[in-house]
Protein backbone atom coordinates (compact mmCIF):
# COMPACT_ATOMS: atom_id res chain seq x y z
CA UNK A 1 0.00 0.00 0.00
CA UNK A 2 1.35 3.41 -0.98
CA UNK A 3 -0.06 6.51 0.65
CA UNK A 4 0.05 10.07 -0.61
CA UNK A 5 -0.14 13.29 1.33
CA UNK A 6 -2.88 14.88 -0.75
CA UNK A 7 -5.50 15.02 2.04
CA UNK A 8 -3.26 17.30 4.09
CA UNK A 9 -2.15 19.61 1.31
CA UNK A 10 -5.28 21.74 1.28
CA UNK A 11 -5.61 25.44 0.71
CA UNK A 12 -7.15 25.92 4.16
CA UNK A 13 -4.30 24.30 6.01
CA UNK A 14 -1.63 26.06 4.00
CA UNK A 15 -3.33 29.40 4.52
CA UNK A 16 -3.29 28.64 8.22
CA UNK A 17 0.41 27.97 7.97
CA UNK A 18 0.98 31.23 6.17
CA UNK A 19 -1.30 33.36 8.31
CA UNK A 20 -0.70 32.00 11.78
CA UNK A 21 2.59 30.14 11.87
CA UNK A 22 4.69 32.59 10.00
CA UNK A 23 2.60 35.72 10.56
CA UNK A 24 3.95 36.62 7.14
CA UNK A 25 2.60 39.56 5.22
CA UNK A 26 3.38 39.92 1.55
CA UNK A 27 7.10 40.62 1.37
CA UNK A 28 6.44 43.40 -1.06
CA UNK A 29 3.38 44.78 0.70
CA UNK A 30 4.24 48.27 -0.41
CA UNK A 31 3.66 47.22 -3.97
CA UNK A 32 -0.12 47.23 -4.14
CA UNK A 33 -0.20 45.83 -7.65
CA UNK A 34 1.87 42.79 -6.71
CA UNK A 35 -0.21 42.26 -3.60
CA UNK A 36 -3.42 42.36 -5.62
CA UNK A 37 -1.98 39.91 -8.13
CA UNK A 38 -1.09 37.46 -5.37
CA UNK A 39 -4.67 37.59 -4.16
CA UNK A 40 -5.86 37.06 -7.72
CA UNK A 41 -3.60 34.03 -8.05
CA UNK A 42 -4.88 32.55 -4.81
CA UNK A 43 -8.48 33.02 -5.96
CA UNK A 44 -7.70 31.32 -9.28
CA UNK A 45 -6.01 28.43 -7.49
CA UNK A 46 -8.99 27.99 -5.19
CA UNK A 47 -11.25 27.69 -8.24
CA UNK A 48 -8.99 24.97 -9.62
CA UNK A 49 -7.59 27.19 -12.37
CA UNK A 50 -4.01 26.28 -11.57
CA UNK A 51 -2.43 27.29 -14.87
CA UNK A 52 -3.97 30.76 -14.71
CA UNK A 53 -2.78 31.08 -11.13
CA UNK A 54 0.73 30.09 -12.20
CA UNK A 55 0.72 32.68 -14.97
CA UNK A 56 -0.35 35.32 -12.46
CA UNK A 57 2.43 34.41 -10.03
CA UNK A 58 4.95 34.44 -12.88
CA UNK A 59 4.08 38.09 -13.52
CA UNK A 60 4.61 38.86 -9.85
CA UNK A 61 7.99 37.14 -9.90
CA UNK A 62 9.04 39.31 -12.82
CA UNK A 63 8.63 42.27 -10.45
CA UNK A 64 9.90 40.59 -7.29
CA UNK A 65 11.88 37.42 -8.10
CA UNK A 66 12.91 36.85 -4.48
CA UNK A 67 9.46 37.14 -2.95
CA UNK A 68 9.05 34.16 -0.65
CA UNK A 69 5.26 34.44 -0.88
CA UNK A 70 5.14 34.45 -4.69
CA UNK A 71 7.66 31.61 -4.93
CA UNK A 72 5.76 29.62 -2.37
CA UNK A 73 2.37 30.18 -4.00
CA UNK A 74 3.60 29.23 -7.45
CA UNK A 75 5.21 26.07 -6.05
CA UNK A 76 1.92 25.11 -4.45
CA UNK A 77 -0.01 25.70 -7.68
CA UNK A 78 2.54 23.67 -9.61
CA UNK A 79 2.06 20.85 -7.10
CA UNK A 80 -1.72 21.01 -7.54
CA UNK A 81 -1.24 20.98 -11.32
CA UNK A 82 0.97 17.86 -10.95
CA UNK A 83 3.99 19.67 -12.35
CA UNK A 84 6.20 18.24 -9.66
CA UNK A 85 9.53 19.37 -11.13
CA UNK A 86 8.55 23.02 -10.98
CA UNK A 87 6.95 22.54 -7.57
CA UNK A 88 10.29 21.16 -6.44
CA UNK A 89 12.20 24.04 -8.04
CA UNK A 90 10.21 26.91 -6.56
CA UNK A 91 9.67 25.42 -3.10
CA UNK A 92 13.41 24.82 -2.81
CA UNK A 93 14.01 28.46 -3.68
CA UNK A 94 11.77 29.51 -0.78
CA UNK A 95 13.83 27.33 1.55
CA UNK A 96 17.08 28.78 0.20
CA UNK A 97 15.78 32.36 0.54
CA UNK A 98 14.89 31.61 4.17
CA UNK A 99 12.87 34.78 4.67
CA UNK A 100 9.38 33.38 5.22
CA UNK A 101 7.01 30.55 4.30
CA UNK A 102 9.75 28.00 4.90
CA UNK A 103 7.63 25.38 6.67
CA UNK A 104 5.04 25.34 3.90
CA UNK A 105 7.84 25.19 1.34
CA UNK A 106 9.42 22.19 3.06
CA UNK A 107 6.11 20.34 2.89
CA UNK A 108 5.56 21.22 -0.77
CA UNK A 109 9.17 20.29 -1.58
CA UNK A 110 8.88 16.94 0.17
CA UNK A 111 5.55 16.19 -1.52
CA UNK A 112 6.93 17.09 -4.94
CA UNK A 113 9.88 14.76 -4.46
CA UNK A 114 7.80 11.89 -3.08
CA UNK A 115 5.29 12.16 -5.91
CA UNK A 116 8.17 11.84 -8.39
CA UNK A 117 9.24 8.63 -6.70
CA UNK A 118 12.16 10.31 -4.95
CA UNK A 119 11.05 9.05 -1.56
CA UNK A 120 14.51 8.76 0.00
CA UNK A 121 15.32 12.34 -0.97
CA UNK A 122 11.95 13.49 0.36
CA UNK A 123 12.75 11.80 3.66
CA UNK A 124 15.96 13.81 3.91
CA UNK A 125 14.00 16.99 3.27
CA UNK A 126 11.58 16.18 6.08
CA UNK A 127 14.46 15.21 8.34
CA UNK A 128 15.92 18.69 7.81
CA UNK A 129 12.52 20.29 8.33
CA UNK A 130 12.03 18.43 11.61
CA UNK A 131 15.21 20.00 12.97
CA UNK A 132 13.85 23.49 12.38
CA UNK A 133 10.11 22.96 12.86
CA UNK A 134 8.58 20.75 15.54
CA UNK A 135 5.27 20.69 13.74
CA UNK A 136 2.68 18.00 13.12
CA UNK A 137 2.61 18.49 9.34
CA UNK A 138 6.34 17.81 9.15
CA UNK A 139 6.00 14.68 11.28
CA UNK A 140 2.95 13.51 9.34
CA UNK A 141 4.46 13.94 5.89
CA UNK A 142 7.73 12.42 7.08
CA UNK A 143 5.74 9.44 8.40
CA UNK A 144 4.07 9.00 5.00
CA UNK A 145 7.47 8.91 3.29
CA UNK A 146 8.83 6.38 5.76
CA UNK A 147 5.71 4.23 5.40
CA UNK A 148 6.03 4.24 1.62
CA UNK A 149 9.73 3.36 1.92
CA UNK A 150 8.94 0.40 4.17
CA UNK A 151 10.46 1.99 7.28
CA UNK A 152 7.46 1.15 9.41
CA UNK A 153 8.98 1.63 12.86
CA UNK A 154 10.23 5.10 11.97
CA UNK A 155 6.84 5.95 10.47
CA UNK A 156 5.23 4.80 13.73
CA UNK A 157 7.35 7.12 15.88
CA UNK A 158 6.65 10.07 13.59
CA UNK A 159 2.90 9.46 13.51
CA UNK A 160 2.85 9.43 17.32
CA UNK A 161 4.73 12.74 17.32
CA UNK A 162 2.25 14.24 14.86
CA UNK A 163 -0.74 13.19 16.98
CA UNK A 164 0.89 14.37 20.19
CA UNK A 165 1.59 17.76 18.60
CA UNK A 166 -1.92 18.18 17.14
CA UNK A 167 -4.49 15.51 18.09
CA UNK A 168 -7.18 17.01 15.81
CA UNK A 169 -5.32 16.21 12.58
CA UNK A 170 -7.42 13.40 11.12
CA UNK A 171 -4.84 12.18 8.61
CA UNK A 172 -2.25 11.53 11.33
CA UNK A 173 -4.64 9.08 12.99
CA UNK A 174 -5.31 7.46 9.64
CA UNK A 175 -1.64 6.85 8.84
CA UNK A 176 -1.12 5.44 12.34
CA UNK A 177 -3.97 3.00 11.69
CA UNK A 178 -2.33 1.90 8.43
CA UNK A 179 0.99 1.48 10.21
CA UNK A 180 -0.57 -0.74 12.87
CA UNK A 181 -2.40 -2.76 10.22
CA UNK A 182 0.95 -3.44 8.61
CA UNK A 183 2.35 -4.40 12.01
CA UNK A 184 -0.49 -6.89 12.46
CA UNK A 185 -2.21 -5.31 15.46
CA UNK A 186 -5.96 -5.21 14.90
CA UNK A 187 -6.92 -3.33 18.06
CA UNK A 188 -4.21 -0.70 17.51
CA UNK A 189 -5.38 -0.28 13.93
CA UNK A 190 -8.95 0.20 15.16
CA UNK A 191 -8.34 2.82 17.86
CA UNK A 192 -6.88 5.54 15.61
CA UNK A 193 -9.47 4.67 12.99
CA UNK A 194 -12.26 5.38 15.48
CA UNK A 195 -10.60 8.73 16.17
CA UNK A 196 -10.14 9.48 12.47
CA UNK A 197 -13.86 8.89 11.86
CA UNK A 198 -14.71 11.09 14.83
CA UNK A 199 -12.75 13.94 13.24
CA UNK A 200 -13.86 13.21 9.68
CA UNK A 201 -17.16 11.27 9.72
CA UNK A 202 -18.59 11.97 6.29
CA UNK A 203 -16.06 12.34 3.50
CA UNK A 204 -15.09 10.20 0.54
CA UNK A 205 -12.25 8.55 2.35
CA UNK A 206 -14.20 8.19 5.61
CA UNK A 207 -16.72 6.01 3.77
CA UNK A 208 -13.87 3.66 2.82
CA UNK A 209 -12.29 3.69 6.26
CA UNK A 210 -15.62 3.11 7.99
CA UNK A 211 -15.92 -0.17 6.10
CA UNK A 212 -12.34 -0.98 7.08
CA UNK A 213 -13.29 -0.51 10.73
CA UNK A 214 -16.33 -2.75 10.38
CA UNK A 215 -14.18 -5.40 8.70
CA UNK A 216 -11.76 -5.32 11.64
CA UNK A 217 -14.64 -5.98 14.03
CA UNK A 218 -15.98 -8.83 11.88
CA UNK A 219 -12.57 -10.45 11.44
CA UNK A 220 -12.26 -13.93 12.90
CA UNK A 221 -15.97 -14.46 13.55
CA UNK A 222 -17.76 -16.98 11.34
CA UNK A 223 -21.07 -18.77 11.66
CA UNK A 224 -21.82 -22.39 10.85
CA UNK A 225 -25.49 -23.22 10.87
CA UNK A 226 -27.98 -21.77 13.33
CA UNK A 227 -26.10 -22.32 16.58
CA UNK A 228 -22.39 -22.69 15.88
CA UNK A 229 -20.20 -19.57 15.87
CA UNK A 230 -16.45 -19.85 15.40
CA UNK A 231 -14.26 -17.19 16.97
CA UNK A 232 -10.60 -16.86 16.02
CA UNK A 233 -8.73 -14.16 17.92
CA UNK A 234 -5.83 -12.65 15.94
CA UNK A 235 -2.46 -12.77 17.66
CA UNK A 236 -1.33 -9.31 18.73
CA UNK A 237 2.37 -8.53 19.02
CA UNK A 238 1.50 -6.52 22.15
CA UNK A 239 0.31 -8.96 24.85
CA UNK A 240 -1.16 -6.08 26.85
CA UNK A 241 -3.93 -5.82 24.25
CA UNK A 242 -4.65 -9.54 24.09
CA UNK A 243 -7.75 -9.27 26.26
CA UNK A 244 -9.01 -6.36 24.16
CA UNK A 245 -8.54 -8.46 21.02
CA UNK A 246 -10.62 -11.20 22.59
CA UNK A 247 -13.31 -8.67 23.55
CA UNK A 248 -13.62 -7.41 19.97
CA UNK A 249 -14.29 -10.90 18.67
CA UNK A 250 -16.62 -11.89 21.51
CA UNK A 251 -18.63 -8.70 21.13
CA UNK A 252 -19.18 -9.44 17.48
CA UNK A 253 -20.08 -13.06 18.22
CA UNK A 254 -22.65 -11.95 20.81
CA UNK A 255 -24.65 -10.27 18.06
CA UNK A 256 -26.14 -13.66 17.25
CA UNK A 257 -27.54 -14.21 20.73
CA UNK A 258 -31.30 -14.52 21.12
CA UNK A 259 -31.46 -11.28 23.11
CA UNK A 260 -30.03 -9.35 20.16
CA UNK A 261 -32.49 -10.57 17.55
CA UNK A 262 -34.41 -7.72 16.00
CA UNK A 263 -31.72 -5.13 16.63
CA UNK A 264 -30.39 -3.21 13.66
CA UNK A 265 -26.81 -3.48 12.50
CA UNK A 266 -26.02 0.00 13.83
CA UNK A 267 -27.60 -0.75 17.21
CA UNK A 268 -25.33 -3.76 17.53
CA UNK A 269 -22.35 -1.73 16.31
CA UNK A 270 -22.95 0.83 19.06
CA UNK A 271 -23.28 -1.87 21.73
CA UNK A 272 -20.13 -3.61 20.52
CA UNK A 273 -18.22 -0.34 20.68
CA UNK A 274 -19.45 0.34 24.20
CA UNK A 275 -18.33 -3.10 25.38
CA UNK A 276 -14.93 -2.71 23.75
CA UNK A 277 -14.31 0.76 25.20
CA UNK A 278 -15.32 -0.27 28.72
CA UNK A 279 -13.22 -3.43 28.72
CA UNK A 280 -10.17 -1.53 27.51
CA UNK A 281 -10.80 1.13 30.13
CA UNK A 282 -10.76 -1.50 32.86
CA UNK A 283 -7.54 -2.94 31.44
CA UNK A 284 -5.94 0.50 31.50
CA UNK A 285 -5.72 0.45 35.28
CA UNK A 286 -2.62 -1.72 34.95
CA UNK A 287 -1.04 0.06 31.97
CA UNK A 288 0.38 3.39 30.87
CA UNK A 289 1.81 4.79 27.65
CA UNK A 290 0.54 6.56 24.56
CA UNK A 291 -2.12 4.04 23.57
CA UNK A 292 -3.59 3.72 27.03
CA UNK A 293 -3.28 7.37 28.01
CA UNK A 294 -4.56 8.85 24.74
CA UNK A 295 -6.95 6.52 22.93
CA UNK A 296 -8.13 4.17 25.66
CA UNK A 297 -8.63 6.94 28.22
CA UNK A 298 -10.58 9.02 25.73
CA UNK A 299 -12.98 6.27 24.67
CA UNK A 300 -13.38 5.01 28.24
CA UNK A 301 -14.43 8.48 29.38
CA UNK A 302 -16.86 8.61 26.48
CA UNK A 303 -18.37 5.25 27.42
CA UNK A 304 -18.71 6.28 31.07
CA UNK A 305 -20.59 9.39 29.95
CA UNK A 306 -23.02 7.12 28.04
CA UNK A 307 -22.01 8.75 24.77
CA UNK A 308 -20.86 5.70 22.83
CA UNK A 309 -24.22 5.37 21.09
CA UNK A 310 -24.35 8.88 19.57
CA UNK A 311 -20.64 8.54 18.77
CA UNK A 312 -21.27 5.29 16.91
CA UNK A 313 -24.06 6.78 14.83
CA UNK A 314 -22.05 9.94 14.21
CA UNK A 315 -19.11 8.04 12.72
CA UNK A 316 -21.54 5.93 10.65
CA UNK A 317 -22.95 8.85 8.66
CA UNK A 318 -21.05 7.84 5.53
CA UNK A 319 -22.76 4.42 5.54
CA UNK A 320 -26.28 5.50 4.66
CA UNK A 321 -29.41 7.21 5.93
CA UNK A 322 -30.00 5.20 9.11
CA UNK A 323 -27.29 6.99 11.08
CA UNK A 324 -28.42 10.46 10.00
CA UNK A 325 -32.03 9.59 10.83
CA UNK A 326 -31.10 8.39 14.32
CA UNK A 327 -29.11 11.57 15.00
CA UNK A 328 -32.02 13.67 13.78
CA UNK A 329 -34.54 11.69 15.86
CA UNK A 330 -32.44 11.87 19.05
CA UNK A 331 -31.43 15.54 19.30
CA UNK A 332 -30.90 15.50 23.07
CA UNK A 333 -28.42 12.62 22.97
CA UNK A 334 -26.67 14.05 19.93
CA UNK A 335 -26.49 17.54 21.44
CA UNK A 336 -25.01 16.14 24.64
CA UNK A 337 -22.38 14.34 22.56
CA UNK A 338 -21.60 17.49 20.58
CA UNK A 339 -21.24 19.54 23.75
CA UNK A 340 -18.91 16.94 25.24
CA UNK A 341 -16.87 16.91 22.03
CA UNK A 342 -17.17 20.67 21.49
CA UNK A 343 -18.58 20.08 18.00
CA UNK A 344 -20.27 23.24 16.66
CA UNK A 345 -23.85 23.13 15.43
CA UNK A 346 -24.28 23.55 11.68
UniProtKB/TrEMBL annotation:
Write out the ranges of the repeats annotated as TPR.
34-67
Q: Does the keyword Transmembrane apply?
A: no
- Top-level taxon in the UniProt lineage: Bacteria
Arranged from A to Z, the UniProt key words for this protein are:
Repeat, TPR repeat
Q: Does the keyword Repeat apply?
A: yes
Name of this chain's protein = Uncharacterized protein
Amino acid sequence: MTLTTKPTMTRTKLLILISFLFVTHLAFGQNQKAEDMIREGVALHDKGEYQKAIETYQKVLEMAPNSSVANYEISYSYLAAKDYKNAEKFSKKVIDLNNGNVLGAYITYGNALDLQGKTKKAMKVYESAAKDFHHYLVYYNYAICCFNAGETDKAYDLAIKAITDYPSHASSHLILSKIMERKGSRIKAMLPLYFFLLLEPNSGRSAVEYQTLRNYIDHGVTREGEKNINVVVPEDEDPDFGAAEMMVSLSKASNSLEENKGKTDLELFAENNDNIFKVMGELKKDHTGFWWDFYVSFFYRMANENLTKPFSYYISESDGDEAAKWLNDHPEEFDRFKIWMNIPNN
